[in-house]
Amino acid sequence: MNHVPDEALAALDAFGEGHLRGDPAPVSERLRSDLRLRITTLDDGRTARCRFETEHTRTPPTLRDRGSFLATYADGVDDRLRAWGIEPPDAYEYVGTVDGWHRYAGRLRLP
Fold first, then answer.
1. Cys bridge to 64: 48, 71, 95, 105, which one at CB 3.0-4.6 A?
2. How many CB atoms lie within 10 A of CB 13?
């Protein structure tokens, strides 16, 4: 089951298509009230940073350690990225908390 909202899927498609044209737009989407997605291309042009931001009381070491329901969002995002030839990381790891939002990030390998 894919829980990723249509607007986020469209933003992922625009990122993938933009990368093929050489001008990928950053992704900044709300996946649900307590989960956001951010993707930005890094200066090398071969990788991008993908970050999930979530509000929760605990901070396990990886995003998928938060449980199967939240993992379905990460899986949906990863599946859409793979459809564009973009390889997601093995795990989105906890990298810190800013303004109450826990950040989980990984590097995407661009085609």
1. 71
2. 13
The total of other beta-carbon atoms located within 10 Å of residue 5's CB is 16
pLDDT band at 80 (very low <50, low <70, confident <90, very high): very high
Nearest alpha-carbon partner for 40 in 60, 7, 11: 11
> Residue 89 burial by CB count (10 A; 0-12/13-18/19+): exposed, middle or buried?
middle
Structure tokens at 106: 């990984």
Structure tokens at 84: 């564009």
pTM of this prediction exceeds 0.90: yes
Query: Do 22 and 28 touch, CB atoms closer than 8 A?
Result: no
The CA-atom distances, in angstroms, between 94 and each of 26, 34, 37, 41, 107 are 21, 16, 14, 19, 13
Closest CA relative to residue 89, chosen from 100, 102, 101, 104: 104
